[in-house]
Amino acid sequence: MKPNKLVKRLQSLLPMLLILSLNGYGQSDHYLSGRAYMIGEMYDSALYHLEKALQQDPGKADIYYQLGISYFHTDHYPEARDAFYEAEKRRKGMGSFYLAKSEIRLHHPQQALKYLRVHLASPYKRPESEILLDEDFSTLDGLPGWQQLWNEKHWYSDGDKLLQEAIFLKDHGDLLEAINILNDLERKGHKRSLVQGEKAGIYMELGNLKASRTALKSAVKSNTRNLDAKVQLALIQVSDGDTEDALDGLDRVIRQDPARFDAYLQRAEARSLAGDLAGALSDTELYLSYFPEDDSALYRQGLIHFQHGKYLNAIQSFNACLSLNTGEAAYYFARGRCYAATGTIRYAKKDMSMALDLDPLNGEIWFEKGKLDEQLRNMDSACHCYRKAQQYGVFEAGELINKRCK
What is d(CA 138, CA 360) in angstroms, rounded to the nearest whole number? Predict the structure, then answer.
C-alpha cells in the first residue's frame, strides 16, 4: 500500500475504533481482531487491525488476502487490487479470484479476464456455477475474450461437475442419489478429501455417526489441510468420549488457522471433558474477548462451569447470556439447574417455568420441574410434571409416577 494513502485511511478510522474498543472486542492480537471484525462484517475496523498485523508480520500472504477482502467490501477497489496482488505474488492463485473482481470494479475487463484465467488454472479454483452466477463476472459475458476463455480448454473435469451435482443433490435432500455419485467419484480417486467430507455430511444427516467418523478420518488423511473435516471429526470424537484424539486434531486446526474461532469453543468442551477446567476456560475467554456478545458462547462457558461444580460462576455466565437473549429455553433451563444445585429451589422453579413457556414440549424440562415441585412438597404439580415428562419421552418419569403419584 502507498504510505500516504494508508495513513489517511487509518486517521479516518480512529474515532470509530475508539468507540468500538469500548464494546469489548479483543485487542490482544491484531490479526485475530481483524478476522473477528470481518466475521461481524465490520470491515473498516478490520482494516485497522490487519494493517497493524501486517506491520508485525510483514509479507504474509494471508494477511494481504484478508486486507484485500476488507478493502473490497468497503468499496476501496484500488487498495483491494494492490492487496490481492501482493497475496498472489506470495501464493500463486490465492488472490486471483478477487483480483479479477477488483479489476471489473475498476473497469479493466481485460485485466479481469487475465486474472480469471489464472484463477481457473489454480488449486484455488472455485466451482463453475459460482463464477458463472457471480454478478461481477456476468458483466464480462458479452466480451469476445469471455467466450474465448471458456473455449480455450475444459477448465472443469467431468469429476468436478459430478462433485458439484452431488453437493446440489445433498443440499436439496436427495441423499441417496448424492451418495451414489460420491461413491463413484471415490472409486475413481477424484478429490478424495472433498468427496469423503461430503459423504461424512450425508452419513451425519442419516444418523450413521460411525460411517461419518470413518469418512472424516479418510478426508483428513487425504488432505491434512481440510480443516472443516478435522473440526467435524473432533466433534464426533468428543461425543464418543475420545477427547485425546479430538484435542490433538483441534490443536492442529488452531495452529494451521489461528482465526478458526469455532475450534476454540470446541476445544474448550474437549478440555472440559478431559478434566482440564483451566484450559477450557482459557479457550472460552479467548473466544469471548473477540465476540463478547455471543450468547451461545456464554452459554457453553456456563455449561463448562456447571460440569465442574462451579455453580455460582455458571450462574454468572447464564445471567450474561440471558441479558443478551431471553428467547432460548435452554438458557433458563441451565440456570435453573444451577439454582437447584445450590438449593435455591424457588429460583430454580421460576427458571424452569420460563423455559417451559418457550419450549412446552420438552420432557426433560418437565421432569426437572417435577423434581423441584416435589422438593417443595407440591405433589399435585409434581405428578402433573412427571406425566408431561413421560408424555414427551422421559420414560424415567414413569417410575416416579408409579411410586409417588396416585
Answer: 50
Which tens digits make up the pLDDT trace of 120-179? Answer: 999 999 999 999 999 999 999 989 999 999 999 999 999 999 999 999 999 999 999 999
What is the DSSP secondary-structure string of 45-93? HHHHHHHHHHHHSTT-HHHHHHHHHHHHHTT-HHHHHHHHHHHHHHSTT
| Model confidence pLDDT, tens digit, residues 273-317 | 999 999 999 999 999 999 999 999 999 999 999 999 999 999 999
Give domain limits for the chain. Answer: 3-154
252's CB contacts (< 8 A; 6+ apart) are 224, 230
d(CA 203, CA 214): 10
- CATH code: domain 3-154 is 1.25.40.10
Q: Which contiguous run of DSSP H or E holds residue 207?
A: none
Q: Cβ of 250: how many Cβ atoms within 10 Å?
A: 29
What lies within 8 Å, CB to CB, of 106 at 6+ separation is: 77, 78, 81
Which residue carries 481483524 as its cell? 34
Per the structure block, which three cell numbers stand in for 183? Answer: 461413491
Q: Are 269 and 280 in contact (CB under 8 A)?
A: yes
Q: What is the structure's pLDDT at 406? A: 75
Q: Are 236 and 251 in contact (CB under 8 A)?
A: no
**Tell me, what's the pLDDT at 313?**
98
Residue 17 has what pLDDT? 37
CB-based burial label for 14 (10 Å; 0-12, 13-18, 19+): exposed
Residue 288, all three cell numbers:
469471548
